[in-house]
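A quick aside before the break. I want you to see a complete sequence-to-structure record at least once, exactly as it would be stored in a machine-readable document. Don't worry about memorizing anything.
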Amino acid sequence: MDPLRKLYATAHGVKPGLFSFNSAGACPTCNGLGAVYADLAFLDGVRSTCPDCAGRRYTDEVLALTVDVGLGYLTLGQPLSTLSDGKCQRLKLAGRLHEHGPTGSGAVYVLDEPTTGLHMSDCGHLLGLLDRLVDGRGSVIVVEHNLDVVAHADWVIDLGPDGGDAGGAVVFTGTPAKLCAAPGSHTGAHLARHVAA
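That is the input. The structure line, written in tokens, reads:
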């Protein structure tokens, strides 16, 4: 957590301790535990979610401070085990962009179904992130069934004609616009209907 605390502190001109749930940024009601305990004398104690922070451990003022990395739905202290595979991929992409910057990397990125678990309204953020990688002279290879992503691609390799044992052959290569008219491509037929809608 130390690098995150420093990042938030630098972005907002405050001390890193503000972003520690057992220090200055802690909820004063539960002292950053996220829960309150009631002592019932001769009975076992009762643990309940903190009524002030709702288990988030931090004060509202601290939680209102953000760092924009294109993943606005992530919260400070959120366990990685709560993230889908797609969200983990996007988190890794954001880290790569921060590490190498948007230009001059020349890296090759291979993504497998990055829209998995992604809300439809966030697909545009993902496409923007992929565009930044390409604009920075990176190569982005995406295995994806999401038609918004296919329509946004520079080049498509369509495998088929069906899935499983009935697939694996290259049915089409080219731009998404040409894929829409490709004979024998199920993807092309679905994409044509999708872009016309």
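Two observations worth writing down. Residues 44 and 197 are 60 Å apart (CA to CA). The chain has seven helices and six strands. We'll return to this after the break.
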